[in-house]
Specification:
Number of strands: 14
Strand content: 25-35%
Radius of gyration: 23 Å
Bound molecules: adenosine-5'-triphosphate
Distance between the termini: 42 Å
Number of helices: 10
Strand order of the largest sheet: 6-7-8-4-9-10
CATH superfamily of the largest domain: P-loop containing nucleotide triphosphate hydrolases
Helix content: 25-40%
Shape: globular
CATH architecture of the largest domain: 3-Layer(aba) Sandwich
Amino acid sequence: MNIDGHEHVIEVTDLRRVYGGGFEAVRGISFSVARGEIFALLGTNGAGKTSTVELLEGLAAPAGGRIRVLGHDPFRERAAVRPRTGVMLQEGGFPAELTVAETARMWAGCTTGARPEAEVLDRVGLADKHGVRVKQLSGGERRRLDLALALLGDPEVLFLDEPTTGLDAEGRRDTWTLVRALRDQGTTVLLATHYLEEAEHLADRLAILHEGRIAASGTPAEVTAGRPSRMSFELPPGYFPGDLPPLAALGVCDHEYDGRTVRLRTRELQRTATAVLTWAERAGVELGALDVRSASLEEAFLGIAREREEVAAA
Ligand SMILES: Nc1ncnc2c1ncn2[C@@H]1O[C@H](COP(=O)(O)OP(=O)(O)OP(=O)(O)O)[C@@H](O)[C@H]1O
């Protein structure tokens, strides 16, 4: 379990999943997650996130490769792994007629060493919903109930599959704060998400999944390194991109102009921004809707998809 001096709570080597009919949803992926780390599997719909998470949870056997969770095979040694993990599936599927408190009580009855239900419901912001039936909860409240149930057993490892789908901006941020607090207390978190912002806010390390393969992995800084930054602004009437300092000499890789807004991608953000702003200052030009942002996961994500499409087309 000890590699590089870290205890790897999750180890995945050359993992494959093949569905009936022969479709290969997971095509040989490898990664590891250290204790107390939030690791995100980031990918578009159909990239293979849920297929991977289900294997980690021991819900199915892999077609190939090896998984260790807390040192055990989660499928063959389910009894050793299950009590130490918390699982928030994509679809909770709890009886609609039960109230929130009844659902938590029922779940606690099946959970070894369960925390008090009220404490856990309070933690996810459902303290005032004890008497509400599951069917009456909003989509976001249901996700929070799913999270509460995953936390009942005070798990060492938490699997979260799209935990904030349906939550409004505030609910999403509350969940992120809670997940970070759990990580800070030593919980290891495996998060599957297609929200770039979620991975950006939460992940200590991540892997970008694309068509069942890992296209990039590392810390967010490592994954975005080498990707271009973006800058956009509106030119006032009478000004055109040709009036700007020569963009190619400033590290700009491409730019577009729709008659009003200039959008560019640059590998030298500071030089580009300085040159454009200095030009505007000297020319007495007021740039509208100025937006400058350094390379983000979005850029890496879109770049990977673009590169793969280009390779496929070639
Ligand atoms: N039971 C199944 N039988 C056949 N194909 C399946 C099955 N379940 C999933 N797939 C396919 O496997 C691929 C990966 O699906 P998966 O649900 O793992 O993706 P995902 O990254 O979690 O996407 P999403 O964000 O939409 O949940 C998809 O092309 C999907 O259609």
